[in-house]
Automatic annotation (TrEMBL):
Organism domain of life: Bacteria
Protein name: Aspartokinase
Biological process, per Gene Ontology: homoserine biosynthetic process; lysine biosynthetic process via diaminopimelate; threonine biosynthetic process
Residue positions binding substrate: T45, E125
InterPro entries the record matches: AceGlu_kinase-like_sf (IPR036393), ACT-like_dom_sf (IPR045865), ACT_Aspartokinase (IPR054352), ACT_dom (IPR002912), Asp/Glu/Uridylate_kinase (IPR001048), Asp_kin_monofn (IPR005260), Asp_kinase (IPR001341), AsparK_Bifunc_asparK/hSer_DH (IPR042199)
Domain ACT: 315-385
Enzyme Commission number, as recorded: 2.7.2.4
Pathway: Amino-acid biosynthesis; L-lysine biosynthesis via DAP pathway; (S)-tetrahydrodipicolinate from L-aspartate: step 1/4; Amino-acid biosynthesis; L-threonine biosynthesis; L-threonine from L-aspartate: step 1/5; Amino-acid biosynthesis; L-methionine biosynthesis via de novo pathway; L-homoserine from L-aspartate: step 1/3
Catalytic activity line of the entry: L-aspartate + ATP = 4-phospho-L-aspartate + ADP
Pfam family membership, one: AA_kinase
UniProt binding sites for ATP: K7, F8, G9, G10, T223, D224, R234, K259, V260
The organism of origin for this protein: uncultured spirochete
Amino acid sequence: MTALVMKFGGTSVGNAERIREVARIVQSRQGRKRIVVVSAMAGITNLLFEMAEAARQHDLDRAVQILSKIEQMHLEASRSLDLATPDIIGRIKEIVENLQRRIHGIDLLGELSPRTMDEVASSGERLSSILVAGYLGCPLLDARKVIRTDSHFGTARPKLAAIKKLAALHIVPLLESYDIIVTQGYIGSEDAGDTTTLGRGGSDYSAGLIGAALQADEIEIWTDVEGILTADPRLVPSARTVEVLSYQEAAELASYGAKVLHPATVRPALDAGIPVTIRSTFKPDGMYSTISPGESSGRPCVAIAMRRNVVIISVTQESMTDQAGFLAKLFDVFGRRGVSVDLVSTSEICVSVSLDKSAPLEALTQDLEKLGQVSIARERAVIAVVGDLLRKTPEVLRKTFIAIDGIPVDLISMGANAINLSLIVQEAQADRAVQNLHAAFFEEGER
């Protein structure tokens, strides 16, 4: 059985017009069984979080207003798609009524547990999938029957072996009878049957998990841009599509701020040997990126990525070199606080690490002051120069430092995987640094 997994993001299913275009794209892929994975309509997940938080704060009127807006958006889309049948309307109403009960319960208790939030957040995908499946006239499979996870609500981890068995049980029989089925991204369930979510952006992950479980021929990620670009087009209008790149390059770019692709999507697809293409629903016949096992961009620099909201914590201890296990003690602090460290730089007396600014900085400072003098540099951004041949091309370093001449750099790290050169600069200088680097590597030609 040749199978194609097609994931459509929030902007791709954002209204009736976009859903019609999704249907046209899906129907154009004749000759293969198609599993269509959909996100919530654009903006709906944010509204669901806002609604739940309003209820937690006992602002029930606000929560009800948001829920009414969510309901009307889906009812309006159903009418525009000529789907306002008793069945479709009834299924939308059922989800809305369940949300009404949820927000009243949250308001009554003044408590919003991660378990409850996952149940609320899952409603966006469940609503959009009703419309997409209805318009395509195909079966709708509840993703919670297939995507089995642990009980880490909010950012649940999938159980790959269980997903493979459940896909064989629930998806394969449907594909034997139908050419197209629709399911939801982002959501799953744990062993007891409670709804879980894979984290924001998890619809890409869902597509990768389903594709790997089915040994699909290809996974298509449909979004609002033409693949992975050489830089953020909002900063660099001349950014262009990267036509071919490796899984490692894609994962690095995603981790450092390229939001087109969820990083975890890469892993199950890589393990299963499945190519992933990233395409634009707004330009379905336009450029696209392909990530394929064994492939590589073959470039010293494939793209420039940037992530804001970074801080640097430095711990200075003059006798550090004489203390066996100092680094172990240092990183134990971050581990106990559940904080992920990005970049690390060490000298004889100082260790500096970069973190997201959302980290518990006050608590970390108190813990780290037991090890040495602590300083924090705020309002920083990390810029990554990514490319498979980066380390094998000495010219990269020269071009990088010429491009950022005059821009103070706080920290430099060459990734151990040899495809990532990272720089941390002040946020105020980050845009200019990205623009200069892109010009050096892509607009002046690689000399």
